[in-house]
Amino acid sequence: MRILQSRALTGPPWLAAVLLAVLCAAQSASAVTVQYTTVGKFTSTGTNTTILDVGPNTSSVAFTNGGDIASINPGEIAQMSLGSFAVSSTSSTNVVASDTFTLDITQLSPTGGTPQFVGQLSGTVRVLNSQLVIAFNNVTASAYPVNYQLINLGGGTLLDNELGLSYNSSTTLKAAVSVVPLPATANMGLGLIVCVAGAGIWRKRKSGQAALD
Q1: How many angstroms separate the CA atoms of 122 and 115, rounded?
Q2: Domain limits for position 46
């Protein structure tokens, strides 16, 4: 009876090979959960709101802090929100001709257990042809293995680093978020560990079967 049980556990040689191949392939195909929060503020007020002089009128610009979560496979790109701007008319006299906007990105996942500061995107808010525009000084930030890049910029007369803000509506600041694949050496190392461990188990089971035979 024990001989039959040992052979059942051992199984045919091709089964172990298939299982090892699946485990090795899974190491490089796992999706990564990316989660983050954002906080934006204007230099003139130190808050998420500023008031600019736009010709004969004044406009209030308010940024709504954001955050998003997505499951991303290495090598793929996900479009995610970093927050949004809202522009409206105001009668306030505390106005500035231009302002500086900064956006802090804090990554909640993947991390080593504590939130990780990714970086700061900054730009100048100004009036261009009667339109409010934010010209960003930098459009990328990263915290390994995640990269963030602003994408809904430019168009029309705007440059590739400029975001146009629409009046009486919300303008979302978007980013292309991607996950860097593990280095080939890391994948090979992980696969080797799994294969060596599997081979060891196979040899032990085969030795036990031989002893019973």
Answers
A1: 21
A2: 32-181
